[in-house]
Amino acid sequence: MSYITINNVWKEYGDQVVLERINNTVEEGEFITIVGASGCGKTTFLKMLLGTEAPTRGLITVAGEALRYEPDSERGIVFQRYSVFPHMTVLQNVVAAKEFEKSKLLARLFGTAKQQATEEAMAMIKAVGLSHAVDKYPHELSGGMQQRLAIAQALIKKPRILLLDEPFGALDPGIRADMHLLVQDLWRRYKLTIFMITHDLKEGFYLGTRLWVFDKDRLDPQAPGAFGARITYDVPAGEVDPNAGNIIEEDVQATAAALKQSNSDQSQPELDGATP
User: Fold this and answer.
1) Coil, strand or helix: which one is 27?
2) What CA–CA distance (Å, rounded) separates 32 from 235?
3) Higher pLDDT, 199 or 106
4) pTM attached to this predicted model
5) Dist. CA 52–CA 41, nearest whole Å
């Protein structure tokens, strides 16, 4: 039995179809990278895995059980924008994530529980390479350091599934390369199953074990929301045929251009009484 099964999942908002006929399986420990044009439901899919959104139709199962559509400690997420508390130090930020998990009502721990949380936080801070910055505040950290902190917050809860929504999109190339090495190390060390959205096709092939492309293979220019995106490519990552990469890039760019044109056409005002 596969670790994660996605069975005929659709997501609709009113008459707008975002995703349709999503079918796939994922084994525990895989690293799935996801690319696709803006508006093709990538973040919506991640939100369903997180549990903040539920499919309109279909079913997602994890370890043979239906996914619970509310966030829990089994699933962690890191966004492109750093989700850290600006008034807390690095150590306080990571301890707070543990406190929210263990004490949902008070979000505070005391005594032995507090000491244990602090020790776990220090170990996680070391794992992400921030031991030298435990007493610094977020505004004193670089973008890459803030993202390391956000990853530590997510991993302190010991999730089995880690969701990354364009986590490196705002970072400089050199810092991104360092973050690639960090994520790959943490993935292997903690035996995570990872889903990561990226707009960088090369990054997707480099980091993951499989690359999924979310794309609309049906598109009505007069009604861009009539059809949803599907997984149109599911290919092994790593070494890849350059021609395959070029085909994927061309498909994604074509859909992005078509969606942009459709949205532009939809927003054009109609001219009343436009008679000569």
Assistant:
1) coil
2) 10
3) 199
4) 0.86
5) 14
